[in-house]
Amino acid sequence: MLIGELAERAGTSSRALRYYELQGLMESARSGNGYRTYDSASVLRVRQIRGLLDAGFSTHHHPADPALRAGRETGDRTVPIGGGSDA
Question: Which of 8, 16, 58, 66 could hold 74 in an S-S bridge, CB 3.0 to 4.6 Å?
Answer without folding.
Answer: 66
